[in-house]
Amino acid sequence: MTFVVFAGLVALAPGPDTFVVLRGAVAGGRSRGLWTTGGVCSANLVQGLAVATGLSAVLTRSAEVFAVVRWAGVAYLIYLGIGAILAARRGDGAGWRVGSAGGVGRGHWGAARQGFLSNITNPKVLAFNLAVLPQFAGPHAGFLELMGLALTLTLLGLVDQVVVVLGASAVAGVIRRSGVRRVIEGLTGVVMLGFAGALATEGP
C-alpha cells in the first residue's frame, strides 16, 4: 500500500507524457487521447521489463549508452516543442485536425507512436524505475515481484492519463477556439522546450 500511495503521487506529477496526451485528446478527441495514452503505457511496460530483467542496469551504468538515450529524449522534446510553437504562430489549426498532413492527426497508430516515443526517450523514467522499484521490492526481489511493481506504476499512470483525456474531451469545444488553441499550443511548446532544457543540463 505504501508503494501504491507513492506511485499515485508520481502519476499525478505532470511531465512530457501528460502534455502529449492532453494535446492528442484535444486535437483528435477521446479516441486519439486514449491511443496516445496506450503508447505511453506500452513504453512504461518496456522500461519496467528492462528493470526487472536487469537491462536498465547496463544502460544506467554505461555513461555512453545513457547519454545516447538522454540526448534522443532531448531531441524529441525539442521537436515537439518547436512544432507546437510554430503551430501557435500559424494559427491555422492544421495540427488539430485528424488526418492533417504534418499535424497531430496521423491516425491511431501515429498517436500511439507519439505517446510511446515521448516515454521511451525519457531516461528519467528508466532511472526512476531502477532507483525506486528495488527499494520497495527488497534486496532479494525476483522478476515477478519487480514486474508487479512496474505494472502497478503503469496502471496508476494509465488511470491518471485517462482522467486527463476525459477532462480534455469534455471541454474540447472551448479549447478548439482559435485563441484558446493558440495559447495552448504556445504554452505546450514552451513547456516541452523547458523539459528539454532541464534534461539537457542534468547530469554529465
The largest β sheet comes out as: none
Distance between the termini: 35 Å
Number of domains: 1
Rg: 17 Å
How many runs of DSSP E, i.e. beta strands?
0
In summary, what is this structure?
The protein contains nine helices and no strands. By secondary structure, the protein is an all-alpha fold.
Can you put this structure into words, describing what you see?
By secondary structure, the protein is mainly α. It has one domain (17-201). 83% of the residues lie in helices and 0% in strands. The chain has helices at residues 2-12, 16-53, 55-61, 63-90, 107-120, 123-137, 143-170, 172-175, 178-201. Helix 2 packs across helix 5 and helix 2 (16-53) packs antiparallel against helix 7 (143-170). The longest helix is centred in the first third of the chain and has 38 residues, at 16-53.
Layout of SSEs?
Blueprint: H1 2-12, H2 16-53, H3 55-61, H4 63-90, H5 107-120, H6 123-137, H7 143-170, H8 172-175, H9 178-201
Keywords:
mainly alpha
